[in-house]
Write a structure and sequence with these properties.
globular; 5 helices; alpha+beta; 3-stranded antiparallel β-sheet; single chain
Length: about 70
Amino acid sequence: MFWFCAIETYQDGGATAKEASEHLGLTPQATRRIAKQLAENKIFLVADVIGRTIKYKASPHIVSSLSGAEQSE
């Protein structure tokens, strides 16, 4: 979940839980719970809210504080 929102969709402004669930092969409910927990711990930021749909992206501090080797892993 973190990799998808931090790396693959960061330039697009993040992703919704539904988009992440389709990519990761999880249920939308599971990805919503994961995203909510990551947002509560300030790893994810709420990028946009449209109605009840929340779009998440990774905190730029978390993404940029990793070394190149850590990002590759």
